[in-house]
């Protein structure tokens, strides 16, 4: 077990260094590093448990406090430390199987993704004290950035410069959607790393639970009601509205993954080529395909799409 603690601390330090490099490096390199930042810590959590992951979160936060600042360390802990511990803890929750004493029922993958998306929806609100207490503080810098961009790019493109009213409207739109975009981006990256870490842990023999049937992924009852309430909250000004936008962005990404699971479920019993079409659509016409997958994930519990399309018709 002591080796697991060492692994957890090392993984936390590795994730912290990736986090620091992504934040301070060039934009392109930073984007690539962000995609892999959670992987070492998540792998340690799934391979050795939540306690090594917690030690890694504390070690990474301490490193960030030493090389950067305390607010930077708090940002790392909220964005990578705490959610990794939560994911590792939930992944290993289990109870005896009701019909077979030799088996265990593990925490469902759908509930795990739901918990991650709820955390991701809360994350942009939790970091508000670290960015000045509100996203409104970003309105003026964004307006100035758009003004300079318009002045530089408009002559090159042969277009008129943006008027002040247009710049203010774009800056307001940026401030409005930013919490949702941050939450959606975080949930997408974290769930992807959770899947990759699970695969690696399973191949290495370190995964201490059964592999879930991901195509059967399902969210808890009433989860769509949370999304509905979040969408209503987006019309409220202030922090409540920002929380609604943030939670909406996170839950929509969760339903995107539910839509992917639906496609895998249908393809498993119908035709594998369906997945080629789906992933080609994600790559080539991403916004439209993503919207369709979100709708599929939302409608599946209501219309029972897995029961309607998942089972092939009987042969005659």
Structure, explained:
The chain is an all-alpha fold and 316 residues long. The protein is 75% helix and 2% strand. The chain has 13 helices and two strands; from the N terminus they run H-H-H-H-H-E-E-H-H-H-H-H-H-H-H. The chain has a two-stranded antiparallel sheet with strand order 1-2. Strand 1 and strand 2 form a beta hairpin. Helix 3 runs parallel beside helix 5, helix 7 packs across helix 8 and helix 11 packs across helix 12. It is globular. The termini are far apart.
Strand composition percent = under 5%
Shape: globular
Poorly predicted runs: none
The largest pleated sheet is described as:
2 strands, antiparallel
Task: Give me the side-by-side strand order of the main sheet.
Answer: 1-2
Structural class: mainly alpha
- H and E order: HHHHHEEHHHHHHHH
End-to-end Cα distance, whole Å, is 58 Å
Q: What is the helix fraction of residues, given as a range?
A: over 70%
Which oligomerization state do the chains in this entry correspond to? single chain
The count of DSSP E runs of length 2 or more, i.e. the number of strands, is: 2
Number of helices: 13
- Rg measurement, Å: 22 Å
Mean pLDDT: 89
């Amino acid at each position: 077990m002591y080796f697991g603690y060492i692994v957890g601390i090392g993984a936390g330090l590795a994730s912290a260094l990736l986090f620091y490099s992504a934040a301070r490096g060039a934009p392109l390199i930073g984007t690539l590093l962000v995609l892999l930042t959670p992987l070492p810590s998540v792998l340690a959590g799934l391979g050795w448990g939540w306690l090594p992951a917690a030690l890694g979160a504390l070690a990474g936060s301490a490193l960030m406090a030493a090389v950067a600042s305390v607010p930077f360390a708090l940002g790392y802990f909220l964005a990578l430390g705490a959610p990794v511990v939560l994911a590792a803890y939930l992944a290993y929750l289990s109870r005896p199987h009701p019909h077979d004493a030799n088996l265990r029922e593990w925490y469902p993958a759908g509930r795990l993704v739901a918990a991650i998306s709820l955390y991701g929806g809360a994350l942009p609100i939790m970091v508000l004290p670290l960015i000045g207490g509100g996203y409104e503080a970003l309105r003026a810098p964004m307006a100035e950035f758009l003004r300079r961009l318009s002045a530089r790019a408009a002559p090159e493109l042969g277009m008129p410069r943006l008027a002040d009213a247009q710049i203010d409207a774009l800056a307001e739109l940026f401030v409005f959607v930013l919490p949702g975009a941050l939450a959606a981006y975080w949930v997408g990256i974290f769930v992807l790393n959770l899947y990759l870490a699970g695969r690696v842990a399973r191949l290495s023999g370190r995964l201490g639970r059964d592999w879930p049937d991901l195509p059967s992924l399902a969210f808890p009852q009433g989860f769509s009601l949370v999304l509905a309430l979040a969408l209503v909250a987006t019309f409220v000004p202030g922090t409540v509205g920002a929380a609604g936008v943030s939670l909406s962005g996170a839950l929509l990404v969760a339903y995107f993954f539910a839509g992917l699971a639906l496609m895998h479920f249908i393809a498993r019993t119908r035709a594998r080529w369906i997945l080629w079409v789906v992933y080609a659509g994600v790559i080539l016409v991403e916004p439209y395909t993503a919207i369709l997958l979100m709708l599929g994930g939302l409608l599946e519990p209501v219309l029972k799409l897995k029961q309607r399309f998942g089972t092939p018709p009987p042969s005659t």
